[in-house]
Amino acid sequence: NGKLIIDGREIDIQGEKNLLEIIRRAGINLPTFCYHSELSIYGACRLCLVETDKMGLVAACSTPPQEGMVIRTNTLRTRRLRKMVIELLLANHERECTTCSRSGRCKLQLLAHQLGVKEVRFGKRDKKVPLDLTSPSIVRDPNKCILCGDCVRMCKEVQGLGIWDFAHRGSKTVVTTAFDKELSDVACVNCGQCVSVCPTGALTVKSEIDKVWNAIHDPDKIVVAQIAPAVRVALGEEFGLNAGEDVTGKIVAGLKLIGVGRVFDTLFTADMTTIEEANELLVRLEKNENLPIFTSCCPAWVKYCEQFHADLLPNVSSCRSPQQMFGSVVKKYYAKKLNKRPEDVFVLSIMPCVAKKFEAQRPEFTTGGVPDVDAVLTTVEIAQMFKEASIDFTALPNKAFDNPLGVGSGAALIFGASGGVMESVVRYVSGLTGGDEVGRIDFLPVRGMEGIKKAYVKAGGKILKLAVVNGLANTEKLISMLKSGEASFDAIEVMSCPGGCVGGGGQPEVNDTVARTRRAGEIYEMDRVQQLHKPQDNYFVVKAFEEWFGGVNNHETHHALHTTYVP
Ligand code: HC1
Ligand code: SF4
């Protein structure tokens, strides 16, 4: 592969496609706005300019390495140019940094500080454009866009949607939707992946923090929280811990400290989801109808299917997502136990996901006219609440979930990683049909970060063909294979975010393959040491099915735990 010289040091080329990767490996963390290892190369921000002997000044991200090349990263010229780029961006940027919701995590702010930009010599942005507040999940502030195009490429390349694009020319260039429509009026599925890559406050998560504080401080309300699988292995990152560190007990403790009345686990209703969905699959297999079944826990996928593949809606499982099953059982059953009306029990979801905000607001998910889930906070938002309450998170003791809705099996925990829902269904079905000799079922072919995974499993004397997909561009590929007859399956798990919920749009700042892999790794490790392995091992869930519904997959469960799709 050869060698090259970076700032006087000889460095091996290890198969990298561009200079930037080698320079960063050599310990020089060149700044960039528009470079993401998982997106195509755009080369527009010019922050990674370096001087080379052979080609002069080049953008490191878009220059392939050459044997013997001499590179200098830190010259008078490159330093001056980098500062100039930041200054020019700042000149055209709404600089209300102290109150911006991205403050402290904005890359522009950070780099201005890091590169020593002390003044902006150019004119100020003249008029302020209105914010787009129409989406339930995402806020767009065009005044803060620096035209890096990260959102454009994310939405197009990973999600296959292309909601964002450049419009107009020269100094009038903006990133906007088609015909400049409001976000609620385009096909955005609320996955928040664009927010994940936006370096500034141009795209942010719609905050519900104030609503939650109000509920906590309302003496007539009790706040009942649920924590999604993927939150517990990521939240620590907001407090300097490594990606993948399990902080479940600290989250419970923190929530109690800020005044949340009951802290439960989404795992409880994830076990319910598996049981309902697996039974639905068994019925469909028996009748040979509406196959393949598609999972329905990802609200971004459900919206995608409604918009682009309405003909497949009969195939989508009628199960509500674990988040919505939780809201429903709390408002319909648990509220009674507390002697409260549904409107006095405030259900708070803590999710890695931005689309869950949209899901919670869907009109079909209500009890007695009030929403089943009152507010959804992302991993980052709940960390923000802990910060507002001055909680020393890493020093918190570990607390256990409240009961009975605080118990979940390992099969429910793995929902948080791509393939987890399918593996959970396999565990349940094998447990049903395998008799006593069935021990632990670790179904490895559906694990991992690959975009499309295929697997076979023997269940009930049949061979089931399974597929697991993450990312909507991959999903579209799989659907075309299905529709063209090139492939056929019995069951398909779809998660819109790369790697599944561990890579959700509401997860902490660094949300790349490395972070996602670490988070998923810890989820499987926690599952490995968990005694309750299959959903049917969860005694509390089995008991709840009997007490509340008198069985599984029946009229009662359909009322509380299922939904219908209107094409
Ligand atoms: Fe998910 Fe799910 S796994 S959708 O990815 O089915 O958000 O974590 O909570 O509802 O359980 C998200 C995660 C989450 C639901 C479950
Ligand atoms: Fe939300 Fe998970 Fe779907 Fe991403 S994959 S949009 S985090 S439910």
Automatic annotation (TrEMBL):
<keyword id="KW-0001">2Fe-2S</keyword>
<keyword id="KW-0411">Iron-sulfur</keyword>
<comment type="similarity">
    <text>Belongs to the complex I 75 kDa subunit family.</text>
</comment>
<dbReference type="GO" id="GO:0016020">
    <property type="term" value="C:membrane"/>
</dbReference>
<feature type="domain" description="4Fe-4S ferredoxin-type">
    <location>
        <begin position="136"/>
        <end position="166"/>
    </location>
</feature>
<feature type="domain" description="4Fe-4S His(Cys)3-ligated-type">
    <location>
        <begin position="77"/>
        <end position="116"/>
    </location>
</feature>
<keyword id="KW-0479">Metal-binding</keyword>
<keyword id="KW-0520">NAD</keyword>
<feature type="domain" description="2Fe-2S ferredoxin-type">
    <location>
        <begin position="1"/>
        <end position="77"/>
    </location>
</feature>
<dbReference type="GO" id="GO:0051539">
    <property type="term" value="F:4 iron, 4 sulfur cluster binding"/>
</dbReference>
<dbReference type="GO" id="GO:0042773">
    <property type="term" value="P:ATP synthesis coupled electron transport"/>
</dbReference>
<keyword id="KW-0472">Membrane</keyword>
<keyword id="KW-0408">Iron</keyword>
<dbReference type="GO" id="GO:0051537">
    <property type="term" value="F:2 iron, 2 sulfur cluster binding"/>
</dbReference>
<feature type="domain" description="4Fe-4S ferredoxin-type">
    <location>
        <begin position="179"/>
        <end position="208"/>
    </location>
</feature>
<dbReference type="GO" id="GO:0008137">
    <property type="term" value="F:NADH dehydrogenase (ubiquinone) activity"/>
</dbReference>
<protein>
    <submittedName>
        <fullName>NADP-reducing hydrogenase subunit HndC</fullName>
        <ecNumber>1.12.1.3</ecNumber>
    </submittedName>
</protein>
<dbReference type="GO" id="GO:0005506">
    <property type="term" value="F:iron ion binding"/>
</dbReference>
<dbReference type="GO" id="GO:0050583">
    <property type="term" value="F:hydrogen dehydrogenase (NADP+) activity"/>
</dbReference>
<keyword id="KW-0004">4Fe-4S</keyword>
<keyword id="KW-1278">Translocase</keyword>
<dbReference type="GO" id="GO:0008901">
    <property type="term" value="F:ferredoxin hydrogenase activity"/>
</dbReference>
<keyword id="KW-0560">Oxidoreductase</keyword>
<keyword id="KW-0677">Repeat</keyword>
